[in-house]
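Technical annex B. To support the medicinal chemistry partners, we prepared a structural model of the target in complex with flavin-adenine dinucleotide, based solely on the information shown next.
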Amino acid sequence: MGKNTGFLEFEKESPPLRPVKERVRDFQEYDTFFAEEEMQRQASRCMDCGVPFCHMGCPLGNMIPDWNDLVYRGHWKEALAALHSTNNFPEFTGRICPAPCEDTCVLNEHYTLDADEKLKKVNAVTIEEIEKHIAERGWSEGWIKPQPPEERTNKLIAVVGSGPAGLAAAQQLRRAGHIVTVFEKDDRIGGLLVYGIPDFKLEKNIVSRRVEQLRAEGVKFQTGVHVGVDFSVKELRKGFDAILLATGAQHARKLLVEGSDLEGVHYAMNYLPQRNRDVAGDFIPEEEKIECESKSVVILGGGFTAADCLGNLNRQGADPEIHQFELIDMEPRPTPVHEEADPDCRANILTESITDNGKGRVKSLQAVSVEWKLEAGRMKMQRVPGSEFTVSTDLVFLAMGFLGPNLDGLLEELGVRLNVFGGDESRSAEEVKKMLRNAQPMFTIYSDENFMTSEDGVFVAGDANRGASIVVWAIWEGRESARCIDRYLMGTTQLPTTPQAEELV
Ligand SMILES: Cc1cc2nc3c(=O)[nH]c(=O)nc-3n(C[C@H](O)[C@H](O)[C@H](O)COP(=O)(O)OP(=O)(O)OC[C@H]3O[C@@H](n4cnc5c(N)ncnc54)[C@H](O)[C@@H]3O)c2cc1C
Ligand code: SF4
């Protein structure tokens, strides 16, 4: 695999990001590409470690050492085939995956001697970049073509939701010969790939060219159809042999403090889709626009959503005074957008109230430092006396995570049961709604080991099944649920599976 001495000869390198001054003036991707030879050099660092752990670190079980070796030897087309055998959308994961595979790369645990005979850590293979370069090579060479099924089954499947889970399932099911219709309530296909993740991380033509591939394979798309609202559950049940719920988990956690309903306090998921629409050239009514130019901003949260707010603010010319506060004992995850500005990022900060300017608009935010202590097996939070502080701000963005799928008419009418985090019994959507009046528990749609919900023939995949997660897991869930649906309809299935490490032991 690779070149035996590659990791000793070459350092881990990734293509440089576009210069900050240049990239904050537009919304194009901040990533760049390596020349072919440079990428081959990086692939040569894969060191024939004997028992590779990287593909176990990847939820999809991507066959990383195989494609590293193929790239090193210049066999890009074969590398693409190996990559596609486990991953429908490597151009998405190659750009935005947090790359757990690189943490498990054996090189990550390796040390060598430098020129002064001192121990020097060897870094992981740059797996994610290699993945992106293989996928893009496939697109630019015209190797990625529609693969319509050779045989048809005439079974009708409805996929509700067009995020990465729904799209991966739709492609697998269509390739197995079924008639697949994807329903999406928004006007574009892609879920959070299109209306959450900003263009500077993932340009939208990258999503639409993949959607066109699915369309050419025969997947039918219906946008602007909110199932359970515009299209009744009765019709859905009557018209399809199986249903997959891939509706995501976009029920946001609320900020339960005084002033959280003031003008200028926004959920991140009101702001980010609007930004993506604006970048796409859509008309945004004046009264709905969230103007950020020259405004000071507090972002609450430390994950992807918070960072994506920050990246947009940098590009909209917000005041350099941006604060990012995280409640738990973890500094907000550093990302390329953090180097574009110099935000005041702090962990262990609890927001206590938001004050208005006398006209119903936010003026300042009051917070306090907290400490976390383990007590009786649970982490308990304590205020640090005397650490209270106030920051002036024009805007507050709430990016504090998601509780579960939206509990709209669809789940209620279907009658599917839900799992509430920390509880033993499954609950109805009505019961979970009641619980949400007094508390903020996390919840998912209940499923068995075959991705089937409590209702026969109704399956679930992606964030709706596992809770808010990442794209690579959504693709895995889409692929695995497709396999279970195919077996449910046909009695047997040829679709591939990637068991997770815990299932193998
Ligand atoms: C702002 C943000 C940034 C992120 N950045 C990253 C990142 O950089 N890397 C990463 O790996 N992950 C990231 N994630 C997480 C990732 O986007 C999600 O884990 C992933 O998109 C989940 O896929 P999904 O298909 O389950 O659901 P979603 O992508 O949420 O798609 C669900 C779709 O279902 C539709 N829908 C829901 N109900 C109905 C209905 N009743 N009828 C019709 N349609 C319906 C919704 O409109 C939506 O389009 C990010 C998440 C957010 C919020
Ligand atoms: S999908 Fe993510 S975890 Fe898997 S190989 Fe690619 S970057 Fe690594």
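Notes passed to the chemistry partners:
The chain has 20 helices and 21 strands.
Residues 314 and 482 are 40 Å apart (CA to CA).
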